[in-house]
């Protein structure tokens, strides 16, 4: 294992990056909220093949949580995260405080349309405004050559690509493949909330998603079948189960060239999301 440089203030971060740039290094950024698992570590190692210096940010962003959501209980394990990262291509962790990211008097917000409309926004209307502002801040603080985001949060990936294009931020945004448990469940920090019984039910999610993605039926019929299968498997509620245009997340149309199947379902208070390419 190697030592990881831990930085908490943007001035220290920029000084470090300036020194790396002076040595001709390409910079990569992996934004996270911590509670790292193999999915996060795969992003670090993937981007490490494209750059010389990998910076991992760890920041539980309060602006993307509504009052009733799990901001206070979201898992925070900085020491364990640093230990995990010491086995990867990461060399720097940037872990600012909320007061550094949103100092007194902070008055800027962000509204995103396009791929941000629908799906996650139906249940979490605040979400992409919060994600948009924190990701934009991180990209401007680091100004990496490349930043990577996991495809498990597929809508988020498209939203971030839209923001970067719209604001002419000179950063390449790439997606990292979903890393799954042995039974197919997509790895997520929130999986730790599941009880043993809920975890057994959660294993059905990927299989139902595969059926949705490969369904020969019209999209509306395939979506209805997926919803029914999720409820029959024991999920409490289904926020969405659908097939959308993979490039825009619009409803399928004559201009659609690739499709994406997406599911969000709940087990008690735990909300699970997953997606994959559809036929």
Topology of helices and strands:
Layout: E1 5-7, H1 10-22, E2 27-32, H2 38-48, E3 53-58, H3 78-85, E4 90-94, H4 98-101, H5 120-123, H6 127-142, E5 146-150, H7 154-166, E6 172-176, H8 196-202, H9 204-214, H10 219-233, E7 237-245, E8 259-267, E9 270-278
Parallel strand pairs: 1-4, 2-3, 2-5, 3-4, 5-6
Antiparallel strand pairs: 7-8, 8-9
Helix pairs in contact: 6-7, 9-10
Task: Name its key features.
279 residues, alpha/beta, Rossmann fold, Pantoate--beta-alanine Ligase, Chain: A,domain 2, 10 helices, globular
Largest sheet: 6 strands, parallel
Cα-atom Rg, whole angstroms? 19 Å
- CATH topology of the largest domain, what is it called? Rossmann fold
Low-pLDDT regions:
none
**CATH homolog superfamily of the largest domain:** HUPs
Number of strands: 9
Mean pLDDT: 97
N-to-C span: 43 Å
The helix-and-strand class reads alpha/beta
Widest sheet: strand ordering: 1-4-3-2-5-6
Task: Label the CATH architecture of the largest domain.
Answer: 3-Layer(aba) Sandwich
**How many structural domains?**
2
The helix-strand sequence is EHEHEHEHHHEHEHHHEEE
Shape: globular
Give the percentage of residues in beta strands: 15-25%
């Amino acid at each position: 294992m190697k030592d990881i440089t831990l930085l908490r203030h943007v001035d220290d971060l920029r000084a470090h990056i300036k020194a790396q740039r002076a040595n001709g290094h390409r910079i990569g950024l992996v934004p996270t909220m911590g509670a790292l698992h193999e999915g996060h570590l795969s992003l670090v190692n993937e981007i490490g093949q494209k750059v010389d210096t990998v910076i991992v940010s760890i920041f539980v962003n309060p602006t993307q949580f509504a009052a009733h959501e799990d901001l206070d209980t979201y898992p925070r394990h900085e020491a364990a995260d640093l230990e995990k990262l010491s086995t990867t291509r990461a060399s720097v962790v940037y872990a600012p405080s909320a007061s550094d990211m949103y100092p007194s008097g902070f008055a800027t917000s962000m509204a995103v349309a396009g791929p941000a409309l629908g799906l996650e926004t139906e249940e979490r209307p605040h979400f992409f405004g919060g994600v948009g502002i924190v990701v934009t801040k991180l990209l401007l603080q680091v100004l990496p050559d490349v930043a990577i985001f996991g495809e498990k949060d597929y809508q988020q990936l498209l939203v971030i690509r839209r923001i970067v294009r719209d604001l002419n931020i000179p950063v390449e945004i790439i997606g990292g493949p979903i890393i799954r448990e042995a039974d197919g469940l997509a790895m997520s920090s929130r999986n730790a909330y599941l009880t043993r019984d809920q975890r057994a039910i959660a294993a059905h999610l990927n299989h139902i998603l595969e059926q949705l993605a490969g369904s020969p039926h019209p999209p509306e019929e395939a979506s209805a079948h997926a919803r029914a299968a999720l409820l029959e498997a024991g999920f409490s509620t289904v926020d969405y189960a659908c097939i959308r245009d993979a490039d825009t997340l619009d409803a399928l149309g004559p201009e659609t060239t690739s499709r994406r199947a997406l599911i969000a379902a709940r087990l008690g208070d735990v909300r699970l999301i997953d997606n994959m390419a559809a036929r």
